[in-house]
Structure formats: C-alpha cells, structure tokens
Amino acid sequence: MANVDGRWDSVVKSPMGEQKGVLVLKSDGSSLTGNSEGPMGNVELTNGKVDGNALSWKMDIKTPMAMTLEVNATIDGDTIEGSMKLGPFGNAPFKATRA
Fold first, then answer.
1. CA separation for the pair 44, 53 (Å, rounded)
2. pLDDT, tens digit (0-9, with 9 covering 90-100), for 5-43
C-alpha cells in the first residue's frame, strides 16, 4: 500500500481555470480521510478509499454552487494524478504533489 498520509499541494484544471489547494490525507487500512483547503473553503473528504495505489474520495462543496466532487486517482511516490468529476460539468484533470 502506498504512503498517502500527509499534506499535498493540489491543482484541478477546471472550466473556471486552475483551482489550487492543499489536501491533508490520512489512511487507515483501506479507509481514507482528510480535508481540502482552498479558495472555496475547507471541505471534508467523504467515502475515501485506498486500494493499493488507487485512491478515491468525494467532497460536498457549497460554493460557487452546491455539488459533489468525485476524485479517482493513482498515487506514485510523491505524486497523485487522476480526474475529478465536477458534478454536471464533467471531468477535470487533478494532480497533487507532496508538500
């Protein structure tokens, strides 16, 4: 299992431009918890899972509009890469590097 615990500088290439933030992640077996801190505020991760190098979680945001963001990514050393489903706005590339 990959070491996902810690702080990560993240960026999502959304239709509104690059959205930067900081992820704080903690794994416990196959469970993943944490939060995302960024321009939209502090959001708790829900339904987080770790399966080998595969990671997934959801975040319920309120601004700029209420929606659930869904992340599916892969961790490789000090990099997490994947995609974020932006509710009805499709998918956007997601990347994070260990802070």
1. 21
2. 999 999 999 888 899 999 999 999 999 999 999 877 899
